[in-house]
Design brief:
single chain, 551 residues, mainly alpha, 2 domains, 5 strands, 5% strand, elongated
């Protein structure tokens, strides 16, 4: 009854008696009901009140039902509409859909049929609300996990230098932590793959990460810091790929939520930069701990709100949406099970036998490492060309914030440019960007061209993940993404951090970026050599379908 009261219905019919009958029936069922006598009154009511379903007659004075539906759709596409008609013909049903209605009801029909149709739409509405709540939970998770990293990694090199670590030592610390992450990601990916509750594993990782990072702020000795930071990496590194896997397995729009990670990272760097300038660089550790604390609290609430009795409510939602005017499903045709419910089987050998996946991971190796290492060495470049600590925060705020719109636009961009070629273009821009950085541009220019990083990372970070997912079975998504994290990101980052630290000691930050540019160039050649830029038949058909729909 509580759920029905939350579903608001507006009845629009010029027949007052029939209007009263519908109001009485639906009110007794527990719905919130209001009524109007014509389309003009209905539009006025909709301007002032929230409505979930409009039940409207087609034949009315002043404004008929068809015009009312069109005006509703111009302002709000989410409102459900059921057309009331006096004629039970196929033509009426077709017209109802053409006008933008979800269903139709014949006045002479049994009222039980109307109850069923309204109940179905109310159920879909309830499931969509649950999906929306889950979406915002993932928005919070991405925002705070990435803000935590943004508060730590970009300024970690500056902090370590401030407490007396040399460039080589800084490179060893970051590279060792990344090396630990190489084993950590597959280890926790395997555990999550065979676990009945992957959310609980990510919560555990976030809690332990929080505790370790708090302890790190009190460590100044090189060897102890090295070991403690390696432990931190063992628990922190798998959080991102496992969160990506959870997002994709639950069919949350990946680009839409991943953009909040970019915004969170940007905000984290900016806040940490401002506070570090005003106080001390050591503040990056409690700030990072705060970000992870909020993230795991959101995850706990997400886990508690999950009803295990619902065997994949997304599949239920899709099933309900196919009812009504559409052709009934073929009961003899085997149904595809929900992704989250597929049996957890297979191991990493299955992934290593996937030749195209391995080719993609090798090519990504020469791109992902520089993206991560840039978080460490951009600060040195910015300082070398005359910038300040606070300026580093501003630069990362703009650059990482610029990633968000491109992450949100990736699906739209795929309608114009195939995913495979969009990745190639982004790789080329990345290599040219680092080549330009190697010339030592002024800090104002580094900040002014923030959109270049937004374009490159905003596309690469989302599309590489989508490419990996495209090449594996749904049940293997979690393991595939942790393998991608371990090999393409972590292994590559080790090499970039070590070589970058050595170059920084003997040369300068500009030479580090010359190395990054050459490194990206190798990845481009491999991507082309493996033929990964070629558009698949599936993408071609999808793009042609989208074009035909527009026509």
């Amino acid at each position: 009854m509580v759920e029905k009261k939350g579903y608001k219905i507006l009845i629009v019919d010029d027949e007052v008696e029939y209007q009263k009958v519908l109001t009485l029936i639906l009110s007794e069922l527990g719905y919130g009901v209001a009524s109007c006598s014509n389309g003009i009154e209905a539009l006025d009511y909709l301007e002032k009140n929230v409505v979930d379903l409009v039940l409207t007659d087609l034949k009315m004075p002043a404004m008929d039902g068809a015009e009312l539906i069109q005006k509703i759709r111009e302002k709000n596409e989410k409102i459900d509409i059921i057309v009331i008609t006096a004629y039970g013909s196929i033509e009426s049903a077709v017209n109802a859909i053409k006008y933008g209605a979800k269903d139709y009801f014949v006045k002479s029909s049994n009222m039980n049929e109307l109850e069923m149709k309204v109940g179905r739409l109310a159920k879909i509405h309830r499931l969509e609300r649950k999906m929306e709540k889950r979406y915002y939970s993932y928005v919070g998770i991405y925002t705070f996990t990435y803000s935590a990293i943004g508060m730590l990694l970009p300024l970690l090199g500056q902090y370590l230098a401030a407490i007396g670590f040399s460039g080589v030592k800084i490179g060893i610390v970051t590279a060792t932590a990344t090396a630990v992450g190489i084993g950590a990601s597959p280890f926790w990916g395997y555990r999550s793959h065979h676990s009945k509750d992957s959310v609980r594993i990510v919560i555990f990782l976030c809690v332990i990460t929080t505790l370790i990072i708090i302890g790190l702020m009190f460590v100044k000795q090189y060897v102890i810091f090295l070991l403690a930071f390696a432990c931190f990496s063992f628990f922190q590194t798998p959080i991102m790929p496992l969160t990506d896997a959870m997002t994709l397995e639950n069919r949350i729009p990946f680009g839409a939520v991943r953009k909040w990670g970019a915004l969170g990272f940007a905000a984290g760097v900016f806040i940490a930069g401002q506070l570090a300038e005003a106080t001390s660089l050591v503040i990056i550790f409690p700030l990072c701990a705060f970000g992870y604390t909020v993230a795991w609290i959101i995850m706990v609430r997400l886990q508690r709100g999950k009803k295990r009795s619902e065997l994949g409510f997304l599949t239920i939602l899709e099933s309900e949406q196919h009812k009504g005017l559409e052709e009934p499903p073929d009961l003899n045709k085997p149904r595809k099970p929900a992704v989250a419910m597929e049996p957890r089987r297979g191991d990493y050998l299955v992934l290593f036998r996937n030749k195209k996946l391995m080719a993609l991971l090798i090519s990504a190796f020469f791109i992902c490492g520089t993206n991560v290492a840039n978080n460490t060495y951009f600060g040195f470049l910015y300082i070398d060309v005359g910038g300040s600590i606070a300026g580093i925060g501003v630069a990362f705020l703009l650059m990482c914030g610029g990633e968000a719109p491109f992450m949100a636009w990736t699906e739209r961009l795929e309608r114009l440019i195939p995913m495979e070629r969009m990745i190639l273009i982004s790789m080329m821009i990345s290599a040219l960007r680092y080549l330009w950085y190697s010339t030592g541009p002024a800090p104002e220019l580094l900040i002014g061209t923030f959109f270049i990083q937004g374009m490159v990372n905003g596309i690469v970070l989302v599309e590489f993940v989508r490419y990996v997912v495209k090449l594996v079975e749904p049940a293997m998504i979690g393991m595939a993404l942790t393998l991608y994290q371990a090999l393409s990101s972590n292994c590559s980052t080790i090499l970039c951090q070590l070589i970058g630290g050595t170059i920084l000691d003997f040369y300068s930050a500009t030479q580090v970026y010359l190395f990054f540019s050459i490194y990206n160039g190798i990845g481009i050649l491999l991507y082309l050599g493996f033929g990964l830029y070629k558009c698949s038949e599936t993408n071609v058909k999808k793009r042609d379908h989208d074009k035909s729909k527009k026509v």
